[in-house]
Every structure is written in C-alpha cells, then in structure tokens.
Amino acid sequence: MKIASARVIVTCPGRNLVTLKIATDDGLHGLGDATLNGREKAVVAYLEDHVIPCLIGRDPHRVEDIWQYLYKGAYWRRGPVTMTAIAAVDTALWDIKAKAAGLPLYQLLGGRSRDAVMVYCHANGADIAEAVDSVAAHMAQGYKAIRAQAGVPGLDKVYGVPKGGAPYEPAEKGLPVETVWSTEKYLDHAPKLFETLREKFGFGLHLLHDVHHRLTPIEAARLGKALEPLRMFWLEDPTPAENQDAFRLIRQHTVTPIAVGEVFNSIWDCKGLIENQLIDYIRATVVHAGGITHLRKIAALAEIYQVRTGCHGATDLSPVCMGAALHFDIAVPNFGVQEHMPHTAETDAVFPHAYTYRDGFMYPGDTPGHGVEIDEALAAKYPYDPAYLPVARLEDGTLTNW
Ligand code: EZ4
Ligand code: CO
User: Fold this and answer.
1) Which CATH number goes with the domain that contains 44?
2) Are the CB atoms for 355 and 323 separated by under 8 Å?
3) 25 CA to middle of ligand 1, Å?
4) How far apart are CA 169 and CA 161, in angstroms?
5) Sorting pLDDT into bands at 50, 70 and 90, what band is 165?
6) Residue 266 Cβ contacting ligand 1 at under 6 Å
C-alpha cells in the first residue's frame, strides 16, 4: 500500500477547522485534525508546502517511521505549528491502518481498558446564581463532572463566560478583542462560586475549574488552598507552564489536584512536571501533541508517576480530534477524564461520526478507523472566516496572559 494523495480541507461551520485527508493507492483514506485556533493558515501552509510532497509514495503502515521522519527530518523540532501538522498526518495514518485491519482504532492501541469514557462539560454564568443554574442543567443531562466558570463583579468579560448565556466558544470573528483582567477581583470571588456549588449540590459531583494561566505561582497556591475544603476534581492551568518549577511552589502549599498541558506540544513540555510529580492530570491531546503516536508516549511516562490523562476537548479541536481522542481514552490505562464541549449541529453535519454521548460518558463506536468522516460538499459551503482568541490587559493597560 502507498500514499497516493493528501489534501488539506479548511471549513468554517461556525468556527474554522482544518482537516488533512490522506488517500492510498488501494482506495483507503484517513483523516487527521490539523486545527490550531487563530493560526490555522500556518498549519495549512506547513502541510501543503513542506509535508504533503514528502508523503507521496510512502507506505502508510509505517506510522512510527513517518512520525520520526517528520520530527527529526525537519531538523527544527517541536513547536505548535510543526506538532499540529505531524499530528494530522499521524492521526490520518492510524485511521488508515485501523481501516485496513477492519478494526476500531482502540483495538490497535491494546483494546478497551474501560467500558466508557467519563467526560466533563462546561457550565458558566454571568454571576454565581446563573452558574449554579447552568450546573443544574448539565447535571440533568447526566454529566458526572462539570467545569464551572462565573463572571467576576467589576470585570466586563471573563474567560469561559459568554455574553447572553450562550455556550462558551473559544475565538471570535475578526481581529483579537481586548479584555480587561484583575487578579485581585477574581481571587476573592472564585472560591465563593465553589462554596455555593457544594452547598447546593453536595460532594457527589466532580467539580473542575480553569484558571486559564492567569495567576502567579503564589496566587495559584492561595486559590488552591482556599478551594481545598471544596475538594475539586482539578484546578486547571493555574499559572503559565513554561517554567515548570513554578508548579513546585503551588504543590508545596496545596493538595488541590492540578491539571495542565492543553498548550503543550511535546513530551518535553511534560517531562519535569510529571517526573517531579508536580501535577495530577496531563491535558495534552491528539491534535496539538503530535498525534496518537506521541500522546501514547506522554501517557506512558505519566503512568509510572500515577499522573492521569485529561485531554483538552474544546470546540476548536475538531470532531476528528474528538474521535481519535476517544479511542485513545478508552484504551489508555491511566485515563482520568475527557473534556467535552459539544460541537454545533452544523459542525456535526460536516463531520459525520461514530462516537456518542450518553449519561455523562462518551463511546468511540466500533466503526473501523477512528470513526469520523468529512462531508466535503457540505464543508465547501463554509469558507474560512478569520477569528481569533481575545487578548487580556490588566486594569492599567499592561498586556497579560489570556
Ligand atoms: O482556551 O481551546 O479548557 N479549555 C480551554 C479552551 C482554550 C481554547 C484555546 O483555543 O482552556 O477554552
Ligand atoms: Co483550559
């Protein structure tokens, strides 16, 4: 079997999504997600100009060798654009291999380690009362694990909280919007949200919260300590992770479990955090961390330190990534939880898929491959439409982490 062709498909059924489609000379094809939110075209060019020409004629069964070829062969290693492009190729090749075997992808990853994949959803509200209602509504949909975010008094726009009660969507049309952030206002308010949620719903529900890189290590330690009696499932991205030692400071002060890694693109971002047992959940996922091949290596390193997986799963990760992630999740021994932000009906129509949600859990399905396809005619009706994540400034105008 040989790779006969490869194409990049860009579509915007509500948000921009990039898909790599690889076809073989014997009529099989595989899909890989190549979406890098707000930097979509950089990955498109990387694939079209530098990767696809090298793929034609290769044996698609040599998944590991092609991964090494694209990683070591580029000389310039790692980085989000490179690793997203490699991930797209890798995911498409695993899809082809599983289709050639006539098996769902998870069977090639060692088979199921569990019956179902626990997912967490997003609840949010302009204030605590609205966030409480949103958590109740998601509990009614069966979710066992819920991320809660609430507006902060005195701040106009807060991460994870859309205007008008709509589902949160990470990216807005046009150039980046500027928002104002105050750590002081947030830090006093955040514990009140979780105190209220525990009073209302008790401790039988997993509660999660995303700090979204906003705090310094000592501020994050203070928040972790304040949340300790509320027994969080995790506190996500408490501080930026370029300096891995920052997490030691958080760890010294609190037993609130820590999750990090949605922006990581290789095992080298994870290494110190895992080996020094500074985190509890690693959030790297298929599309941004080098595909199934590389994510398995990250998970294997995490496994020996009892760090569990918690794959990023926002809507800017396409259904192709979600499908592949669910096969990984159901197979990997040290699975923790999977993020689930449902895609719009338009997106689901462009990407018909075998995976399903039922009562707080998701299932990858048993279709050969990862079980996600693309309706190219429908995809063509939604052309690329520039959209970006916001930026954040402090109240004095200083640019800070969004
Ligand atoms: O900001 O996916 O946990 N989820 C998140 C997301 C990220 C976006 C970035 O593209 O933090 O909302
Ligand atoms: Co996050």
Assistant:
1) 3.30.390.10
2) yes
3) 38
4) 9
5) low
6) no
Q: Which one is catalytic: 29, 122, 209, 212?
A: 212
Q: In angstroms, what is the C-alpha Rg of the chain?
A: 20
Q: Is residue 212 among the annotated active site residues?
A: yes
Task: Pick the last residue of a domain from 78, 103, 128.
Answer: 103
CA of 170 to the centre of ligand 2 (A): 10
In terms of domains, do 91 and 113 share one?
no
Closest by CA position to 262, among listed 304, 320, 317: 317
Please, which residues have CB less than 5 A from ligand 2, an ion?
Answer: 210, 262
Tell me the CA–centroid distance for residue 339 and ligand 2, in Å.
9
159 is catalytic: yes
Locate tokens 């060019």: which residue?
45
Regarding whether 273 and 143 lie in a shared domain, the answer is: yes
Q: Which atom belonging to ligand 1 lies closest to the Cα atom of 283?
A: 3
Q: Which DSSP string corresponds to 249-272?
A: HHHHH--S-EEE-TT--SHHHHHH
Query: How far, in Å, is the centroid of ligand 2 from the Cα of 156?
Result: 20
Best residue among 179, 286, 312 to mutate for probing ligand 1's pocket (most ligand atoms within 8 Å of CB) is 312
pLDDT recorded at residue 167: 82
Token couple for 275 = 């080996």
pLDDT in tens, 58-101: 999 999 999 999 999 999 999 999 999 999 999 999 999 999 99
pTM, rounded to two decimals: 0.98
Q: Looking at the structure, do residues 125 and 97 belong to the same domain, yes or no?
A: no
Residue 73 has phi, psi (to 5 degrees) of -70, -20
Tokens of 129: 């009362």
Q: Give 168's DSSP letter.
A: P
